[in-house]
Amino acid sequence: MSLLAFNRRVLEQALDPANPLLERLKFLCISSNNLDEFFEIRVAGLKQRIELGSEQAGADGMTVAEQLRSIRAATMEIVLEQARCLNQVLLPAMRSAGIELVPRTQWDEETRAWLERYFELEVEPVLSPLGLDPARPFPRIQNKSLNFIVRLSGKDAFGRNSNLAIVQAPRSLPRVVPLPNDGGGPRRIVLLSGIVQHFVASLFSGMEVLGCYQFRVTRNSDLFVDDEEVDDLRRALEGELAHRLYGAAVRLEVAKDCPPEYDEFLIKQFALSKLDFYEVTGPVNLNRLSAIYDLAQRPDLKYPVFTPGLPKRLANQSDVFATIRHQDVLLHHPFQSFAPVLDFLRAAAQDQQVLAIKQTLYRTGNDSAIVDSLVAASQAGKDVTVIIELRARFDEAANIELSNRLQEAGAHVMYGVVGFKTHAKMLLVVRREGDGIRRYCHLGTGNYHPKTARAYTDYGLFTADHAIGQDVHELFLQLTGLTQVPRLTRLIQSPFSLHATIIAKIEREAAYARAGKQSRIIAKMNALVDPEAIGALYRASCAGVRIDLIVRGVCSLRPGVPGVSENIRVRSIVGRFLEHSRVFFFHNNGAENDGDSELFLSSADWMERNFFRRVEIAFPVKRRSHRERILRDLDTYLQDNTQAWELQRDGSYVRLQPGSEPPVTAQLDLLFSYAPGTPGFTAI
């Protein structure tokens, strides 16, 4: 339910007139895509629990059936609001701005003639209408594909009465089709669904088409691999990927104009219930409208382009290793460029003194400069070891392809640890120097993905610290070989020590508060679900610890409950960039800028899966200027009163408004503070 509430906050960005118009359309599409993944994974998981007879209530006391009913009610509200947002808000605004999505009812003769020709040349040749009768049963429908149920009258060439057919639109066909434009008028666009519906009769020569209605089915997309039985994880996942298209149905979306008897027919075909059925006013897949963002070619309706900043020490450096050896370097993406990470790896691949490179990859993209450098390093004779997490959800196919490419180049490719996803973000470069072997590290809160580094907020730390380098070395030995739990001196690791350490640090703040000493906790993450961590935070609140939580998405904690959590505030920031960094600050009875307080960056959220079923790390930030800077960033987030949503004790969220105080938009303020030429930039 908390995850659905987050998606509602995303949808609110589409309704916010303060955002550029095409960005609002993008937020609407993101909310649609989020809802798809919610059903593919979360709802699918709940349905599997029912099938297995595992309906025991969780920490919130809700049974699986109660959760599914609550999900239905909340999803209905979101679906209705999405339709209102598109049809009553965005489309009229786009039309006024010169971008028109032209419905079939408004095609003029010239438009209809052009689209008829387009249908004949580009669409009809790849369509395969499937009549339904005893010899031709209901076809297999791919996950999230666009389909039409067609109502017919008459007899076919063999004299058969067939009153129903299915038309499937291949994924190769673009869902958004721009109309010819001489450059002088508005950008006019039509949807593939409208084209098929208008010209579908040509697929059924000699028969009368009485109706054509869109529908889409969402299927269970979680891949199942039995870790104990699998000999080759990559081969097993490759086999499972094909099944993702045809997993168990979990949701059916049908156009609102479809007759009720056909709704019932489709529900029965997919073995679903009314709880799984959703009527849609408009396209059955809103996410495909995202193509308009680029087709429109209207930069005036998008966020202004920005140039990421660069730390002064890296701006004119010629030797990245000397720079890091002299002093740690902290980056804050996307406000600061991801290019130094690419430059660091590229330099390591080319440097003759570099002996080995080791890296974890969770998500990195299909055409990755990261992988290019790793391939070049391996071909140059360096020892390259890459831990690729094949089970990064929805990136499995891309990661399999990257693993093949790296292996062909001679790199050592490992797939992590059986039963545990490798989610830690680590890059280790081993270099021979005049005084011996030195280790250079990059540790981060986000993926090694240049594209998402422009859209996600994350921290990254370059360091040549001996103790951290030794810890990272030990972790790679653990991941690639067979070793015991390493004795780490700087890093904290899941699944072994992170959970217990976080709980202990929360309890320590509570002890300080009970002793009348200063105490404070600030934690920023994507999700807070773990019951033990929440319980520890409640106890700390009762002891008098002031706690600020910045939780982007799921939060199972209730703040402000008298006698339980009145000292806890929870806020979610939803804006231009996806908040992704994890930061944990504990006052530790010390001044916030001295060495007694503790500040960690991490790849882990406070969820049971991150604490116990993943390989994660948290690493300390020791340099005073870096700690001050991160604390200033956190304070900026805590001062936000335009894009911040505050969680209430009843589980609802309220968007903050500036009121009489000046407006503060954290992401915008950070963008300006890190921009080249500003005091905030030159001071770093």
Which helices and strands appear, and what pairs or packs with what?
Layout: H1 2-15, H2 21-51, H3 64-96, E1 99-101, H4 109-123, E2 130-131, E3 146-153, E4 164-169, E5 176-178, E6 187-191, H5 192-199, E7 208-219, H6 233-244, E8 249-255, H7 260-269, E9 277-280, H8 291-295, H9 312-315, H10 320-326, E10 329-333, H11 339-350, E11 354-361, H12 369-379, E12 383-388, H13 396-408, E13 412-414, E14 421-422, E15 426-433, E16 436-444, E17 456-463, H14 466-480, E18 492-494, H15 498-514, E19 520-525, H16 531-543, E20 546-551, E21 568-573, E22 578-579, E23 582-586, E24 598-602, H17 608-612, E25 614-620, H18 624-639, E26 644-647, E27 653-655, H19 666-673, H20 679-682
Parallel strand pairs: 1-6, 8-9, 11-12, 12-13, 14-25, 17-22, 19-20, 20-21
Antiparallel strand pairs: 2-4, 3-4, 3-7, 5-6, 7-8, 10-17, 11-15, 15-16, 16-17, 18-25, 19-23, 21-26, 23-24, 24-25, 26-27
Describe the overall structure:
With 684 residues, this protein is of the alpha/beta class. The protein folds into three domains: 2-301, polyphosphate kinase like, CATH 3.30.1840.10; 312-487, Endonuclease Chain A (Endonuclease, Chain A); 493-682, Endonuclease Chain A (Endonuclease, Chain A), CATH 3.30.870. Helix content is 37%, strand content 21%. It is built from 20 helices and 27 strands. Strands 14, 18, 19, 20, 21, 23, 24, 25, 26 and 27 form a ten-stranded mixed sheet that branches. Strands 10, 11, 12, 13, 15, 16, 17 and 22 form an eight-stranded mixed sheet that branches. Helix 2 (21-51) packs antiparallel against helix 3 and helix 15 packs parallel to helix 16.
